[in-house]
Design a protein that fits this description.
The protein is mostly beta strands. Helices cover 4% and strands 48% of the residues. It is built from one helix and 34 strands. It is globular. One of its GO terms (cellular component) is lysosomal membrane. One of its GO terms (biological process) is regulation of autophagy.
Length: 452
């Protein structure tokens, strides 16, 4: 276990210096002052999934799935079977009677699908005769079904039996899927969102049919997420964020983030003319399940309020490179990781209020020989605009030497990150770990009280 003293660092010009702290002010604190490096992969680690309160799995380009204990960092299982990189991974909790068991489903470039038991390390089921590799997975737990998406959409049961299949009539493949109400599924296919309808007959036969195509995006859709039971969101390669009604699939809000400061006329569109188009891509979306969406756009972060339909906080250069994964925390806090190899913690702070225009003062009472009529047009009332907030850096986790692909939070038990440097790192609250070690020592002393 390594112990690091980490605080808010400057990001080589990307993050402004914090104001000077005076005596009595509380300095922002980063609790993750201990890290444990978990080795076992020998290629890029791209995926992390939580199995239960104390276990998680990691997978990537080496085709391995490793199961870890988040409290000790112990490697519990090594799941071998795929011959090429893993392209998707998801946890599936099956509830039978009063028992619940979580399995892992993986897809690989070797055109196979596997069902793993993380308790035993066994590969319970496998399908290896797919026509193409699967790019995304979606579990429908209430139906005991799961879907795989790629060049075709397939519906499977818990025994890995193919129930139905639907070809994607497009040059592009399905890259993301979300579950919608009333037996519908939304799938991202290039610039379109295809709504599929699932049907289950009285004989338990399942069918899937394309129901509607949503063509409002102007470029490839990169991200698709559920916001809550009534809304879902999509983000495109050119910075388009669209909020959709999950029942009738109408647009509830539209934001085109183009990286420029908002104008004084209250327009919500944000532009930054020197930014390249490739840097405007929405790489990740996160939601708090209510009205707030966090968008990772290029190397920046934008917080969007669905009710007010505007950006309420932003940081144009949150990282030195593209932001790949984000998470909303409580109390206006959030977290992001990037290709620059860092994980950063942020807090929303109100921006300074704009200065009021100066009054004419004493000389405004005199006409100096001119007509007493007003020669300049009256000052127009500035339209009311939503109060913007900035994102202030409160913590910076530096431990990886490569791009961080994603992270996984276990609350007070720690944070897990994975990277192109082949490593998984477990970050811990240093004060909590110190208390736990002290408690363990006292307990040991009590057990050996009678020993000399």
């Amino acid at each position: 276990m390594l112990r690091w003293i980490l605080g808010g660092r400057e990001a080589q010009g990307a993050v402004e210096k914090s104001p000077t702290l005076f005596i009595g002010e509380e300095q922002p604190k980063n609790p993750f002052t201990e890290l444990q490096v978990l080795k076992g992969h020998f290629d890029i680690v791209r995926f992390l999934v939580q199995i239960d309160d104390s276990r998680f799995a990691s997978a990537g380009d080496d085709g391995l799935v490793l199961v870890w204990n988040v409290e000790t960092g112990e490697r519990l299982m090594e799941l071998r079977g795929h011959s090429q990189q893993i392209t998707a991974m998801v946890a599936w909790s099956l509830i039978n009677a009063d028992t619940s068991h979580t399995s892992i489903i993986t897809a690989s470039s070797d055109r196979s699908l596997s069902l793993w038991d993380p308790d035993t390390g066994n590969r319970v089921q496998t399908i290896s005769d797919l026509q193409s590799s699967v790019k995304c997975l979606l579990v429908l737990e209430h139906l005991d079904l799961w879907l795989s998406g790629g060049n075709e959409l397939c519906v499977w049961n818990q025994d890995f039996k193919l129930l139905c299949k639907r070809e994607v009539h497009s040059d592009a493949a399905i890259t993301a899927m979300v579950q919608l109400p009333k037996m519908h599924v939304a799938a991202a296919v290039d610039k379109e969102i295809v709504i599929y309808k699932l049907a289950v007959s009285s004989k338990l036969e399942v069918s899937v049919q394309p129901f509607r195509q949503l063509t409002d995006h102007h470029d490839s859709i990169r991200v698709l997420i559920n916001v809550n039971d009534g809304l879902f969101a999509s983000g495109s390669h050119v910075g388009e964020l669209i909020i959709w009604d999950a029942v009738n699939w109408t647009i509830q809000a539209y934001e085109h983030i183009l990286w420029e400061e908002p104008h004084c006329d209250g327009q919500a569109e944000i532009r930054f003319v020197s930014q390249k188009q490739s840097d405007m891509s929405i790489h990740h979306l996160a939601s708090n399940g209510e009205v707030v969406i966090l968008a990772a756009v290029g190397s920046g972060l934008y917080v969007y309020n669905i009710h007010s339909r505007n950006v309420v906080a932003y940081r144009k250069m949150a990282h030195d490179s593209n932001v790949l994964h984000t998470m909303l925390l409580s109390d206006g806090q959030l977290m992001s990781c990037s290709e620059d190899g860092s994980v950063r913690m942020w807090e929303m702070e109100p921006l300074p209020l704009p200065a009021e225009p100066a009054s004419p003062g004493f000389f405004g009472l005199w006409s100096f020989g001119r007509s007493s009529k007003q020669t300049c047009p009256p000052v127009k009332k500035v339209p009311e605009v939503p109060i913007l907030k900035s994102l202030e850096l409160t913590g910076d986790l530096i431990g990886h030497s490569g791009a961080i692909q994603m992270f996984l939070s276990f609350g007070e038990k720690g944070l897990v990150t994975c990277s192109t440097d082949h490593l998984v790192i477990l970050w811990k609250d240093g004060e909590r770990q110190s208390r736990l070690r002290s408690l363990a020592v006292f307990q040991k002393l009590e057990e050996n009280q009678g020993l000399c």
